[in-house]
């Protein structure tokens, strides 16, 4: 009698009729696939970091800072060409605490004054106004320049001192340092649209065009341009040590930066998010100082195990002020607006060891 050699689940050693068998197999295969792709991603990240370090070492003896700190792309992703950069090896505990918001309990302050910006002064004088986080208005030689516009975001701790509608028709130029949610808001882009000229780092133009905004100029690090119709106004895109991805699964496909604004009378430094790189700030000083005003970020620096390479503490910001050649006035920005980290902003006055580095109220307008 012929033997039936077809496979049968009845004789198979795994008990497929058990209710937990299939879920267990699915979980095992899924975990194995996750482990495989995790190891692959880790290997790619290690290889990219090795290449980055090789480039940094090769550039170490270059005399021109524009060459030493030129933007760097590896495998279609931007990376930091600074020896100070350390890839964040965030522990499981830190990741869990960040995700649960347990590192955010010290930032909620209720006694920071909010005042309405002096639009009368902004229209007629050279001024600086901080609106929260890195959103600022610089008024220089009749031009009004807005930076990193974020106004009514639902994650703000406190409201903006003014509405976007209040600035409609007032702003000529918008500078964007990078695409993180607290620096680039889609609603603001659509609101200001093509009525203003947007200066952005490399890799962001397509994002704007998809939203119908084409009055956009992409700049690489150290690239300079005169604003259209204003040969007396120079805008320079300056390096910073940061990243543009928002999650572990994102890629750094667009650049990040700071900006220098230069007129016949004033030189302004708007510092985007950055870790502390002494030689970089000294290079900016050598190329563009003396500065009338510097807006320097002082928040989102704790825990250091997570944020050391990405942001500066108030003490590091004070060192950056010195490295920049001691601007006539530096103002601390990027604090007290969003819950992103664990530092206690009651200690933000640590930077006030010199009257030339101050903090202001939200919306306070300074004549410069």
UniProtKB/TrEMBL annotation:
Among the Pfam families in the record, one is: Lactamase_B_2
What GO cellular component is one of the record's annotations? cytoplasm
Which residue range or ranges hold the Metallo-beta-lactamase domain?
Answer: 144-335
Question: Which GO molecular function annotations are given, in alphabetical order?
Answer: N-acylphosphatidylethanolamine-specific phospholipase D activity
Q: Which Gene3D superfamilies match?
A: Ribonuclease Z/Hydroxyacylglutathione hydrolase-like (3.60.15.10)
Q: What biological processes does GO assign it?
A: N-acylethanolamine metabolic process; N-acylphosphatidylethanolamine metabolic process
This protein's name: Metallo-beta-lactamase domain-containing protein
Q: Which organism is it from?
A: Thamnidium elegans
